[in-house]
Structures are given as structure tokens and as C-alpha cells.
Amino acid sequence: MSIISENTVYFIIAVAIIAILLVWAYVTKRMQKDFSTLTWVLIPVAIAINVAVGQIVVTLKLPVYLDSIGTVLVAVVAGPWAGALTGTLSNIIWGATIDPNAFPWFPVAFFIGLVSGLMANAGWFKSWWKVVVTGFVVALTSAIVSTPIAVYLYGGITASGSSFITAYLLQTGQGVVQAVLSTGFLVEPVDKIATAMLAFAIIQGLSKRFVARFPRPENAEVEGTASQTQLIIAVVIVILLVLFAVFLLGNIIGG
Amino acid sequence: MPERLSFYKKQDSVLHRLNPLSKLTIALGIIFISFLTPFYWAPHLLIIFVIIPLSYLGKVMRDYFKAMLRLILPAAGFLFIMQALFQPFEGSELFRIGFLHPTQESVRFAFGNATRIFVMVSSFTIFLLTTHPSELMTDLTRRGLPGQFAYVIISTLQIIPQMQAKAQTIIAAQRSRGLDTESSFFRRAGAIVPLVGPLVFGSLVEVEERAIAIESRGFTSTHIKTSLHDIPDTTADKLIRWMFIVFIILSLVSRIWLS
User: What is the pTM of this model?
Assistant: First the structure.
């Protein structure tokens, strides 16, 4: 019982930090600047992109979801709060029209939008290798945020396919939280890095005049031109990140 | 491709006539009670004595059972089996197949968990079956929700089917040009770009025109807008809302007290 109350304290602290950030962004008018009419119009289109691309991927039978490309797109050109709103509404609408099982996961989508927006604001969406890093950070965030939902709402094993990994880790004698978190670290990076790279490709394909009309066009400027070298750097970084994740996992399992 | 834009089922029932916010309170109230209650059998009793009668009251029992068979039971059933088999609880073993050894405790835990998920999804489903999305949005806007949110929700519901139709057209068109969408993994992964590209660029082009169109209709105007439809909010509605808030607080208090 004492462990649960300790986690409750962490939960309340996390919610309080987000609430303070929200109020700060609202009071200092940073948020209002991002929500122009064009942003409000882009959000529904981005949600529809999330849904439609998610379904195309299902048609192609690929082992990823790619259901947050629109969210990342909005987060880059219109800031973290617009991205967070897109993610949240996207999940709510997915729940209301396709599958009510999607509702409880909306905080994950919120953080995907928020974190990719913050990364883009910090200049981490300007070349291939930086986008890969952004995708990896988003993946870590989404693994961490989805863990408490999976543990407290579903008791650790959820109704998705990757639960078999969680179930295996539980059988090897790990705690529920570690098992769910390790599964997230294993499954998320591929999906989120692919999402970030596709969103980057889409933004590069848009005309400069169009992107310039959004609140944060500077986030999408490309630096450097040698795309071949950049791609090689990106691949190397992916391999390093995967090795890092395996190393982390080994530590978690060992300890 | 059959389109299911929303779950809403048009009927004339007590539940349909309730204020949308009251229905939302009922749905969320049922969920909170089932997750907060300290009594093991409370969610099961909720299904029998609240959720099924509610679906009957709303004249959506058939649709509810259809949704249950299609969406809720598979998910809850999968959850139950996985958790019963894999949750490592100590206790009296029921049987043993290889390394699987479900115990009485793990089955009990899995059953409780699956039922709570069942209650959660069921109560959302009944809410969606009896509430039209634009009605809910109108009511919430009247209560102070910014109009932009209502715009986003309603227009998304309109855009998604268009977008899905467009995606199907693009898939068919690219296939007829010889795009490989069914063979090896790398071919299929490579097919993403020619499918996603046209879809996304095509839909983003419309964004600018849409922005100008809604701006010219006073989208960002701060004046209070009037509504053509009047959504009733009776004393009974207010009573129901307060009742469910009290229920939630009661179950939270009993949870803290009894643990």
C-alpha cells in the first residue's frame, strides 16, 4: 500500500507541473500566439491524417502504428500546446468513432504532441539526424506515460499485441512496472522514429510560402544540404540508440 | 467501404432526451465508481443493474450488444485470458500446462480487471449511442467551452470519412500503376511514401482556403453567438448530475476509509 501512495505523490507532482506550465503559457500569451485561425483549421485535418494514415498502415500490414504523424506535424509548425491538443482530441475522436478502447490512452497522445513540439522549438527538427533523436525522445516519453495507465487501469497486461512481451517479462520474475516499461522501450522507438521522419519529409515537401503562414515556420527550416551524409549519420544514430536501449534494458533486468 | 461516422443511434427515449452533459456525467460517474470502489463485486453489479437497464431505457440495447460482441468482449476476453495465465501471483494453483500455472488469485484479479475495463468501455458506448456529437458540443459551448473546440471536433467528424475515401482512392490508383502493397516486408514499407504523400499534401492544400472561409464568417469574433437549437436542461438533469458527483465522492471516501 505504501508503494501505491508514493506513486500517487509522483502522479500529483507530474500533473501539477503540467498545470503550472499550462497556466504560465496561457498567462504570458505564449499559447494564444500559437493558436491562429490557420492552426485551428490545421488541427482537424491533422487528426484526419492520423486516422487515415493509421488505417493505410493497417492495410499494408506493417508492424508499426504511425498514428501520430498529424500530431507531430502540428506540433512542429504550431508549437507544443497545439500539438498536445491535436493528440488529445485525436485519441478522443478515435475512441468516439472507431474503438472506445482508445479513450484511456489520451495522456500518451498529449505528451507525444507536447514533447515533439518542445523538441522542435529547441531546434531539434531541422535535419535528419536531429529528427531521429526527436523521435527517440518522443518514444521514451510515450513509453513512460503509458506505463502508469497500463499498470493501474489494466493491471499491467493490456489488450494489445505487445503484451506478450510484458507477459514474458512478468514470468521471468520482474515487477509489473519494470516489465511494462521495458516493453515500451522495446516497441516504441521504431514507431516514433518512423513517425518523426515521415513528418519531417512531409514538412520538407510543403512549399515555403505555405509553412511560413503558420505560427512557427522557423522550426521547420533545414540546416545543411548534404542529405547523403545526414542519412548515414541518422542510421548510425539509430543503431547507437538501439544499443543504448538494449544496454538500459539489460541494466533494468539485471537490477 | 461502409462508413461509421459515429455510434449515434437516433431514437426517442428518456435517455436521448436527457441533457448531454448529464449523460456525460453518468458515463464518467459509472467509470469512476467501478475503478474507485473497494468492493470486489461492485463492477459486476454495475453491469447487471445499471448498464444493461440503461441501454434498455435508451432503446439501444440491440446496438449495445452488437458493439459489445464486436469491440468490448474481444478486448476484455483477451485481457482476462492473458492476465489469468501470466500474472505471477502466489496462491493455490488451479492447473499447470508447461510453465503456465494460473492461480486462484490471478484468475480473481484478471476477472475483476477485465470487468472494470468492460464497464468503462460499455458506459462510453452507451453514452455515444444516445448522444449526438454536435448536440454535446452545442451544449458545452453554451456552458463556456470555446467555440474553436466545437469547430475542431465537428469538422474532424466531417473530414475523416472524406479522408478515408481519399485514402482508398489513392491505394487503388497506385495499385493500378503497379505499386506493390502485398509482397515482402521492405516492398510494403516502401509503399508508405507514395500512399501517404498524395493523401497528406492533397489535404493540406485545402487548409488555407478553409481558414479564409471560416475567418470571413466571424470565427475569431468574441461576441456571444446565439444557437438555433435549444437544448433542454431540466431540474431532473441537475439532480442526476449532483447525484452522480455524490456517488463518486462516496466511493472515493469508502476506498480511502476501508484500505
Answer: 0.83
